[in-house]
Each structure stands twice: as C-alpha cells, then as structure tokens.
Amino acid sequence: MKQLLLAMGFTAFSMAAYAQTVDFATADADGNGVVTMEEAQAAMPDVSPDAVAAADSDGDGVLTVSEYEALISQ
Ligand SMILES: [Ca+2]
Ligand SMILES: [Ca+2]
C-alpha cells in the first residue's frame, strides 16, 4: 500500500511538458528495465524521436530510468 501511494505521488510529480506522460514501469512494456524508442512512442505517441535521442545521454539507443525521467521532464 505504501508503495502504491509512493507510485501515485511519483506519477503526479512527473506531470511535465507532454500532455500525457506515463511512468517508467508502464512505458517499459516488456519489463526488461529499459525503455526503447518503440516503447516510448507506444506509451507517448506525441514524443518525438529527437526527444528520445536527446534524453538517451549515453547513446545506447535505450532509456534507463534516469534517462526516461529526463525525457518526460523536458
Ligand atoms: Ca523495455
Ligand atoms: Ca541510454
């Protein structure tokens, strides 16, 4: 229960420039711990490839939790 409340708080805190953002666990559709370009665009159709690339700070083509947070807080 506490975890759920924390998750809800995090989701509210994550409201950002995008009209519709989703938390990392939701965006990571296959649950492998990283969000691919395809997963990001499936979760947020209005996110641009350039925005994903810009958030991918190590350039490996996938977003870690911290990289994803950078994306949704743009
Ligand atoms: Ca994934
Ligand atoms: Ca990366």
UniProtKB/TrEMBL annotation:
One of its GO terms (molecular function) is calcium ion binding. Residues 24-50 form the EF-hand domain. InterPro entries: EF-hand-dom_pair, EF_Hand_1_Ca_BS, EF_hand_dom. Keywords: Signal. Residues 1-19 form the signal peptide. This is EF-hand domain-containing protein.
